[in-house]
Amino acid sequence: EDITTSRPRSRKVGTPGAFGNFYDRIEGYSHEPGIRNVLRVDRYTIKNPPADASKYAYVLDMVVESANEGH
Q: For the whole model, what pTM was predicted?
């Protein structure tokens, strides 16, 4: 999956043309304010997750693109 990040806690996930907000943690990734990133992540299903947690774990595979947000 490709994820575009523009600020913490507001990430977009999906295939081209189908994006939505993404709030889960991405293991191996730390957002830097003012930097827009397109990430490729691997998604794993968690067996027996807590009732109030996501059933998926996301792990950074690679940074596809990185750019300063027009300042």
A: 0.68
